[in-house]
Model the fold of this input.
Amino acid sequence: MKILITGGAGFIGSHLCDTLLDQNHNIVVIDNLILGKLENINHLFESERFKFIKEDLLNLGSLQQLFEEQSFEMVFHLAANSDIQKGGKDPEVDYNLTFNTTFNVLQCMKEFNVKKLFFASTSAIYGETSELLTEDFGPLQPVSNYGAGKLASEAFISAFSATYNIQTWITRFPNVVGERFTHGVIYDFIHKLKSNPEELIVLGNGEQNKPYLYVKDLVEGIIYVYNNSKEQFNVYNLGSYSRTKVKEIAQMVIEEMELNATIRYTGGDRGWIGDVPEFKYDLTKINRLGWEAKINSNDSVRIAIQKALGK
Amino acid sequence: MKILITGGAGFIGSHLCDTLLDQNHNIVVIDNLILGKLENINHLFESERFKFIKEDLLNLGSLQQLFEEQSFEMVFHLAANSDIQKGGKDPEVDYNLTFNTTFNVLQCMKEFNVKKLFFASTSAIYGETSELLTEDFGPLQPVSNYGAGKLASEAFISAFSATYNIQTWITRFPNVVGERFTHGVIYDFIHKLKSNPEELIVLGNGEQNKPYLYVKDLVEGIIYVYNNSKEQFNVYNLGSYSRTKVKEIAQMVIEEMELNATIRYTGGDRGWIGDVPEFKYDLTKINRLGWEAKINSNDSVRIAIQKALGK
Done:
């Protein structure tokens, strides 16, 4: 199958490229290389079934030209802002990178008659709630512009799917960790400890408690959902029931870096405005489909730390 | 209070102007007069507390200038596309008129520190389902670009409310009818019968069954919700439990026009792609707040027909 992967040079996108190439698909990656990196996909250039286009999805004209030239059968749309804090400071970030990228992809799919879409969504669309999150949860009241950009994307994807007959697979990611990540709590802690090995300052009280999923588990889950769920519009939470507290992550990073740093908490129940301090997925739907994560949250965090340290 | 009403020259917006002026507020209307009409607000120009600006909300620079000059305390954001069929033919319509208008209003509210927002939302965000629609209903899978544009708007409104501390009132409208409407089933039937008094062609099988609300009831409901609901983020369905079938509307229009037209149905369970053939609100939340519609669905339709015919 000829597949377009948007954001394919990014953290998650590049792992997805690895897997889909292994499965003998023809892959075209479009990435503006703002968050994505050539080093994530350098090893793929030798394949004749791999093609890379450095372009911004916001350039609709260029995107239309690409769709016209390539006759894609399916799009995996992963390109987005992934830094929630940055989006809180400037709403244009998620408006453009998280939402408008999606709208442009949808417009091209409609125009060039591409009938299959995978979309990378997020727990952030659910907003802040103590309830167990099923895929049918409501109300959907995101507290970050990132969550809003993803929910706005889901909204138009739903309408395009119904109106223009586009079969759709949406998986909602938890926190994802592993090789090639570009930001997030593990990344931050390692960088902070490299500049000050004596003390680690942690935003919030350290009690934020979320599921972390290893990126290779995540990609396996995405492919599993695509292969096994056959509705016109397929939506799945993707994650594990286990969770990890921020203070546990801080401890693990200090251990793995073999430091004796003290931890200082800035206090408050969250790291920043727009942060959701805890959430828990109901995974009944994806478990019934036959998939579950191989690696639990703590082990995912541990592996990600070790890989980031080159271990 | 100094209030900006976007789309204030439109069908619903102009009725809201009438009521808010009666309550001694200072009103500035911004409207591009594409769907709105000067004749809807001509009677308001004599008031010193009323000001009209012909401008498009998509011109962010002009909107910023207006916010800078005027120091609004609150925005009632009603401007949007309201023609669902039109949006199905061209997704840019709802992307721009329904969603981008909202994003620009939010950006200006953030920039100029306006802390109160009313937003006109819709049953179309709920998608197509036979379930009774509570405000917390999920999943939200709109089947029209109009519904998507409104849900995308709600998503960013939720994030802006949480991130930049904007108190928000959202009411989700059913079908609204009455003086000054510009489109919709009653409008269509009258126009069709004027051009052919012998036969009325009705899209679908006539069984589409929805609640219709008289515009003056609706505006009273909006004001009631704003005055009585005091959370940071307030969401209410607004409507009545009674519903009216399209075939009943066809009968009523023929009766009120005193014709003997035959009705011919095109068949199928809906009028067009993106049409939701039936829905029913759970109104427990707004009823508990102390409001209910004075006029039932059939009477709302009847009044609207009579007013449209100048009776």
The two ends of chain B are 36 Å apart (CA to CA).
